[in-house]
TrEMBL record:
Composition-biased stretches (Low complexity): 68-82
The protein's name: SAC3/GANP/Nin1/mts3/eIF-3 p25 family-domain-containing protein
InterPro entries (alphabetical): SAC3/GANP/THP3 (IPR045107), SAC3/GANP/THP3_conserved (IPR005062)
Biased composition (Basic and acidic residues): 198-213, 227-238
Domain SAC3/GANP/THP3 conserved intervals: 268-482
Comp. bias (Pro residues): 1-18, 46-61
Annotated stretches, region: Disordered: 1-20, 30-91, 168-256
Pfam families: SAC3_GANP
Organism superkingdom: Eukaryota
One Gene Ontology cellular component annotation held by this UniProt entry: nucleus
Length: 523
């Protein structure tokens, strides 16, 4: 377009009063904005003459474009409108954007939740996180979607409504902790139906420790777990009674001195400091030991004897009694456990005996050191076995029981099964009970060697004598236990063992028998 002959005023200056509007002007002149803090005047200055009527003016762009298009003319504000302070700009992390996009994905939409409800919940959640400064600390990947929060609130509201209805219909009042319908004023709507009373406003929190939405979900789980713990505690207290307990007295500095005169007492694991009235002193424990010796010889009830010995050991421990009587109690319990094959209890006893012997307390140390060597041979614990051998003195190695245990170890290390079974036949003390626990695997190993060295067959009597079975029937049963029924043959009244056909029959069981042994209570 062509400007008229009169030149327009320079930018940023007021036009003179005589400056006329051009017929070609297609816009409404406004006062030039000098600063960013003041709004435009609603009316043109008095010096501006009214625009001439040259027909309809071009249509102005919509108000939404005035803030985005700097070239478009600005709309004048009303004189009565005061400018509102600028809102704080929210910093949108990428995780928040992804959270919003994930909320509106088609796969996550719920027909029961409207878009308006979702947008309101999104605005509430993100605004709260921004106000609390949790925009970057909240894990938005695990944040429940708005539709999930809304459904959870609805379910909670229905549950509370049902609980209040049930309380109103019940005949007799109960001591339920749930809210009743009488808790609300007549005609007043419940708080979950009031739009101004949000879910988080109905939960009491410390003002400085109000959790974010993610923390609210975690607190619900913790609250449920706490209720379960309280119910369980009430059951242990004998019903739903007061859970108050007297404070536990502080433990005394010195050992407990027992005053109980009962000879027999069941073993119970301690869950609190021991009470002197239920602990037997050493004088009573000596009488208990003599009673248990007589009962063991007469009744042979291992369950009862083991329980009584554990109770005696507990009373000795809490009173810190460590003398020759303590050693005697542990030694007798260890021998009885060996006789019944209870390696767990035996190992606990031998561990305590090792510490007591190290303190210089007298006892059957030679006997139990030999047992310890045989025990580590059974468990195939080479490290512990080497430690025991390193602690032996030259004089101890000459003792009969220890010398026998060392010979057993040497025979097995050399693969000399003939010597091993001769030693098994001549075991001092109660070492045979320990050797019984691993003689079966050694017989398998020896039988594999016999099958390789003697072919095509050997008399069954030879196997009985070499592997030290009590009879030929026991030797035959041992072979039959490993599906060797085809390896026994009767020839003119003599049963022979067909070693040439054995092949790899005993190799698999031998490898399985030599796998690592795991004993309960082993240290």
């Amino acid at each position: 377009m062509q400007w008229p002959s009169a030149q327009p005023p320079p930018p940023g200056t007021q036009p003179p009063a005589a400056y006329p509007y051009s017929a070609a002007t297609a816009f409404t002149p406004v006062q030039v904005r000098q600063t960013f803090g003041q709004p435009y005047s609603a009316a043109p200055p008095a010096s501006y003459p009214p625009p001439p009527a040259y027909g309809p003016l071009p249509t102005h762009p919509p108000a939404t474009q005035l803030h985005t298009n700097p070239a478009a003319p600005l709309t004048a504000a009303s004189p009565s409108t005061t400018q509102e302070p600028a809102k704080k700009k929210i910093d949108w992390p990428e995780s928040v954007r992804n959270y919003v996009q994930r909320s509106f994905q088609t796969s996550n939409l719920d027909p029961s939740v409207t878009r308006a409800e979702m947008e309101a919940k999104l605005k509430e959640t993100i605004s709260y996180a921004n106000d609390q400064g949790h925009m970057y600390s909240v894990n938005w990947e695990k944040m429940p979607l708005p539709q999930e929060m809304i459904k959870e609130e609805r379910a909670r509201a229905r549950a509370l409504q049902q609980a209040s209805n049930f309380s109103a219909l019940s005949i007799s009042p109960t001591s339920s902790k749930k809210r009743k319908s009488t808790d609300f004023s007549e005609g007043a709507a419940p708080p979950w139906r009031n739009g101004q009373n949000r879910l988080e406003d109905r939960i009491t929190f410390n003002a400085d420790k109000r959790p974010a939405p993610v923390e609210e979900a975690q607190s619900k789980t913790q609250s449920k777990f706490q209720k379960q713990l309280e119910k369980r505690q009430k059951r242990f207290d004998g019903g739903y009674k007061s859970t108050y307990r007297e404070p536990t007295p502080p433990p005394s500095d010195g050992p407990v001195v027992g005053t109980c005169e009962t000879l027999e007492k069941r073993y119970l694991r301690l869950t609190a400091p021991p009470v002197p009235s239920v602990v037997r002193p050493e004088r009573v424990l000596r009488q208990t030991l003599e009673l248990l010796k007589r009962k063991w010889k007469k009744e042979q009830n291992y369950s009862y004897i083991c329980d009584q010995f554990k109770s005696m050991r507990q009373d000795l421990t809490v009173q810190r009694i460590k003398n020759e009587f303590t050693v005697e109690v542990y030694e007798i319990h260890a021998r009885i456990a060996l006789e019944k094959g209870d390696l767990g209890e035996y190992n606990q006893c031998q561990t305590q005996l090792k510490a007591l012997y190290k303190m210089g307390i007298k006892g059957k140390s030679i006997e139990f050191k030999a047992y310890r060597i045989l025990y580590f041979i059974h468990t195939a614990n080479r490290t512990a076995l080497n430690d025991v051998l390193a602690d032996l003195t030259a004089a101890e190695k000459e003792e009969e029981a220890i010398k026998h245990a060392l010979d057993v170890r040497s025979a097995l290390a050399l693969g000399n099964y003939h010597r091993f079974f001769r030693l098994y036949n001549d075991t001092p003390n109660m070492g045979a009970y320990l050797m019984d626990m691993f003689v079966g695997r050694e017989r398998l190993a020896a039988l594999c060697n016999i099958c390789k060295a003697y072919k095509p067959d050997v008399p069954l009597r030879f196997v009985t004598e070499e592997l030290y079975f009590e009879s030929d029937a026991d030797a035959a049963q041992f072979i039959l236990d490993y599906q060797g029924q085809d390896l026994l043959e009767d020839r003119d009244g003599t049963v022979v063992f067909l070693t040439g056909k054995a092949k790899e029959l005993f190799e698999g069981p031998r490898k399985a028998a030599f796998s690592r042994v795991d004993i309960k209570g082993q240290i």
